[in-house]
Amino acid sequence: MKDSMKEYWNENKRYLFILMGIWFLVSYVCGILLVDQLNTIRIAGFKLGFWFAQQGSIYVFVALIFIYVKWMNKLDKKYDVHED
Amino acid sequence: MDIQIWTYLLVGISFALYIGIAIWSRAGSTKEFYVAGGGVSPLANGMATAADWMSAASFISMAGLISFMGYDGSVFLMGWTGGYVLLALLLAPYLRKFGKFTVPDFIGDRYYSNTARTVAVICALFVSFTYVAGQMRGVGVVFSRFLEVDVEMGVVIGMVIVFFYAVLGGMKGITYTQVAQYCVLIFAFMVPAIFISLQMTGNPIPMLGFGSTLEDGTYLLDKLDGLHEELGFAAYTSGSKSMMDVFAITAALMVGTAGLPHVIVRFFTVPKVKDARLTGGYALIFIAILYTSAPAVSAFARTNLIQTVSNVEYSALPTWFSNWEKTGLVGFEDKNGDGKVQYLADPEKNELHVDRDIITLANPEIAELPNWVIALVAAGSLAAALSTAAGLLLVISTSVAHDLFKKQIKPDISEKGELIAARVAAAVAVVVAGYFGINPPDYVAAVVALAFGLAAASFFPAIIMGIFSKRMNKEGAIAGMISGLVTTILYILAFKFNTFGETTKEDWIFGISPEGFGTVGMLINFVVSIVVSQMFPAPPQDVQDLVEDIRIPRGAGTAVEH
User: Fold this and answer.
1) What is the CATH code of the structural domain delimited by B3-559?
2) Residues of A at the B interface, defined by Cβ within 8 angstroms
3) Residue ranges per structural domain of chain B
4) DSSP string across B260-312
């Protein structure tokens, strides 16, 4: 593999690592593992842990995909592997 | 106008629309039949993916399930949305670049092995068949309630319609029909959600109404926790499953979502790799609209239900109760003979039976919304069930015609012959699915969970490692898929169907339910693949080149031509 392609791939993996980390954090950590602790915090009518499990995690998921799209479009251009 | 006429009207108009679109966009070539000619925009494709994905289970059953499960219902919400992050980030762009038609295509080529391809075809067929049977049943139930025909007749009507546009239209027909179906189903879900939210909390946005106060000034969720406590149920916001099990089920559903062949194939229908990434994002927005409203609807419906029936004279119950009582899906048994409904957690004293599947359908009636809204919900549930059924049928026909016939049994088959084989396969699949819709195995829900577990334990690791590891060889992948599949099937047989003797919850390994075991199967798949792959040589150079090639977006346009 050409060196620049290796770098491209490594940078892609780094993005994935960050985004999947957040993915794990909002769902498994905030919504499941720490749900009881977070439930002691309240925002309006929601207990925070419950909110993450039934609302917040989903909003974050949507944001994660769009951030990835944006980062990757930039990265594709930087390494000149974008389509047309 | 009464509900009956409204239902005929709205269902009739929406069906005319779907069929019109199917005729207008009839597929001419095999490529169009499978992947819509590669020319669908990401926005339209996202909408179609959302309709494809949101089945009768999402539309009809999910809000009801959450309504009865409270916090535990979060497994469906996180599981069925989080899977899209996996899809959009880890699978879709690379599979799109790979540019073939199906998942078994990828497995077969990447692992340079027809054995691997065959294992993948079997998995795809099994997952899709179990899934489609549930959809046909859903169609039958909706028809039987609103059009007052038998469930059997309802299923037959559904079969004819699905056959018409899936078999004649192919993927191109399906894509645009599914766009229309998404619009119908989301409108049908949101209208009653907004009405009820407004009615109960004064806030028209259900996601916010969910956290708002009721007329008496208490927060909805606090009120609900209080009601639950009074009646002896676990608090709505805490649930009763073990943390381990919630974790495992959520993971199995997420990974299963990312491994479902009828969802993956949608990402092949856009022109570019960057469009494939974007499709995941749009699809998730469209899905999230329903998935963030559903838990709000669940909480509204739960509160409404308890307040309307608990401790009320049977003779004073509203009309929706007697409407649904006729279907046998709600029931009242006056155990202590006081003429009032006692709805309690204690099964000895509880006098009310409510089937979870009716919550979404009965919700507008419980909230006394106008008749046209109730009819709209019927049209929406049909859109949800039919769009998913059509997508699945396409995977079945593709697996048979393309992966089995063209790639293995008869490679010299003409394009026309392949198209005919695909249509025949779809027709056979409709009939088989219809048969299971009319004579459902009494564990449809269990079989659907099985489908997710199997997708998680078989496809997902093989695809992921096919992209992210150049070292993964066919021996590793095949051993992994088979071991993941077999352990998951054995666990489900042992603890769900008690094939090897009676079992209870206490016997579950690590407290993980059969629904969540796909997660363990997936881990076994990963471990076995990696260990076995080390014992055999690395894949040939051309396969390693293929892996490098799919990691880079440029050149995807040409790759799809056959």
Assistant:
1) 1.20.1730.10
2) 1, 5, 8-9, 12, 16, 19-20, 23, 27-28, 31-33, 35-36, 39, 43-47, 50-51, 53-55, 57-59, 61-62, 64-66, 68-69, 72-73, 76, 81-83
3) 3-559
4) -HHHHGGGGGSSSHHHHHHHHHHHHHHHHHHHHHHHHHHHHHHHHHHHHHTT-
